[in-house]
Amino acid sequence: MGNFSSERLSIADVIVVRVRKFADSRGHFLETFRKADFAEMGVDCEFVQDNQAFSAQTGTIRGLHFQVPPHAQAKLVRVLRGAVYDAAVDLRRGSPTYGKWCGARLTADGGEQIFVPRGFAHGYCTLEPDTVVAYKVDSYYAPQSEAGIIWSDSAIGIDWSVPAERVLVSDKDAKLPSLGAFDSPFEMPA
User: For residue 85, what is the DSSP state?
Assistant: First the structure.
């Protein structure tokens, strides 16, 4: 694991991955994914789809999103340009951290990534204008399985690092239910 290091967040299944950069006068190179090294960290997914999102304004929140079984997704998220505050909420019934959140700042300059396993809602808030986020998922997008929790749910209490009055969300995300109104289909693995 020479090119990667990892840190488990307060919810141990969510991992921040730091990538080693090789820089010289031309710029830099970094390896963003290596299956064997990620497996050593406990990330043993077969990623099947890559996604990318551009957000023009600081304070854009995308989330909290997930897909329900049988199309649940694990995600490996990184920032290509700009910076985000990235958050994950545990939705696994029986988990000691059910309904709790953890998060990390991800930047293009730092190259950090976050692994969000199945059974978590995921979202991020842009901290800089013109931010580009890319992420891998281990299950294909299935519109009939997409779901979410409202970004501002006070029962969860995510600190998005941007004042609520400066937040920009889609109409769709603004209508998502609270955690209390959600009947989770996710179970804590045995």
Answer: E
